């Protein structure tokens, strides 16, 4: 029976199809981390966020072999940029996946395909198909967990809290708003607060792994969201934010390392983050091969 292409269910929420894709994203990295650009955490996190265009979910392509997902071509926030996740045994599907992305995920006659810089065969397929590389990239980093790498100190009067201990949604809203450099105080409308609650509603969200540094004035100085699937050897970092009023105090470092420490206690041996910022390198992460967006005008 040949591999069958189908479209993701257009039904929103954490549906049966959501769980099938999540299981695939875990399985594809089970023996070796081969798709650092789009892990199960990224899938669950983005589906929890209000700014993903969920009206276009049925444009996501899924390839199945005897009912088991073996590949996926998807977007993140909205179509226009395509991400490709493939079981290593089905690499021959990449040309078909690229054609699918051109047809189903392009916007206004343009499509951007994210391809790993060391994936030479896929790069050649892209070139043959009329794509060209751009200077736009996505970086990823990894930390090999050892006890000595998890040491941190907090400023006097600061303390660690998880969202299971201090689930003040307004403090969570504030640190993310200000930590991602929005100006002024955050909006606290019913819609804004509801969206923040929804962002924590993923079925595999472990609030013990959502770590905040509590400042003496009661605000969250920093926040780090950690994701870990029991039985796997890696954890994932997303998102991380530090309020500008509390930067350069070691709060961000403390939040990230505390989150990783909690995952390590559950079995994680490596921590991955979808970033190549100097902040992560300074606390022990090392860079992984980057991904480049390849563009085509159709």
Concise account of the structure shown:
The chain is of the alpha+beta class and 298 residues long.
Give a description of the structure.
By secondary structure, the chain is of the alpha+beta class. It has two domains: 4-138 and 291-297, 3-Layer(aba) Sandwich (Aminopeptidase); 143-273, 3-Layer(aba) Sandwich (Aminopeptidase), CATH 3.40.630. It is 28% helix and 27% strand. The chain has eight helices and 14 strands. The protein has helices at residues 16-28, 40-47, 94-104, 120-128, 169-179, 190-199, 251-266, 278-282; strands at residues 4-7, 61-65, 68-74, 81-86, 110-116, 132-138, 141-144, 159-162, 210-214, 220-228, 234-242, 270-273, 286-287, 291-297. The strands form two sheets. A seven-stranded mixed sheet has the order 1-2-3-4-5-14-6. Strand 11, helix 7 (251-266) and strand 12 (270-273) form a beta-alpha-beta unit. Helix 1 runs antiparallel to helix 2 (40-47) and helix 5 (169-179) packs across helix 6. The longest helix has 16 residues, at 251-266. The chain is globular, with a radius of gyration of 20 Å. The model has no long low-confidence stretch (mean pLDDT 97).
């Amino acid at each position: 029976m040949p591999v069958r292409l189908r479209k993701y269910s257009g039904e929103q929420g954490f549906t049966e199809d959501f769980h099938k894709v999540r299981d695939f994203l875990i399985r594809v990295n089970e023996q070796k981390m081969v798709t650092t650009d789009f892990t199960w955490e990224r899938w669950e996190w983005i589906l929890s966020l209000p700014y993903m265009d969920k009206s276009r979910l049925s444009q996501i392509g899924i390839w199945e072999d005897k009912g088991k997902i073996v590949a996926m071509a998807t977007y993140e926030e909205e179509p226009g940029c395509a991400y490709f996740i493939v079981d290593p045994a089905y690499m021959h599907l990449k040309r078909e996946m690229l054609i699918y992305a051109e047809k189903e995920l392009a916007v206004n006659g343009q499509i951007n395909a994210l391809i790993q810089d060391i994936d030479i065969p896929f790069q050649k397929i892209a070139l043959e198909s009329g794509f060209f590389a751009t200077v736009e990239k996505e970086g990823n980093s990894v930390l090999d967990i050892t006890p000595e790498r998890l040491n941190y100190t907090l400023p006097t009067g600061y303390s660690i809290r998880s969202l299971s201990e201090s689930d003040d949604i307004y403090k969570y809203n504030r640190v993310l708003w200000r930590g991602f450099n929005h100006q002024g105080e955050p909006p606290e409308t019913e819609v804004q607060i509801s969206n923040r609650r929804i962002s924590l509603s993923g079925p595999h969200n472990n609030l013990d792994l959502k770590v905040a540094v509590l400042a003496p004035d009661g605000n969250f100085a920093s926040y780090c969201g950690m994701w870990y699937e029991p039985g796997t050897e890696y954890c994932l970092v997303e998102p991380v934010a530090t309020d500008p009023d509390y930067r350069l105090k070691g709060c961000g470092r403390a939040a990230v390392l505390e989150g990783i420490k909690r995952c390590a206690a559950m079995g994680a041996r490596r921590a991955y983050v979808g970033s190549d910022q100097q902040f992560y390198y300074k606390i022990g992460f090392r860079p992984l091969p980057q991904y480049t967006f390849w563009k085509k005008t159709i």
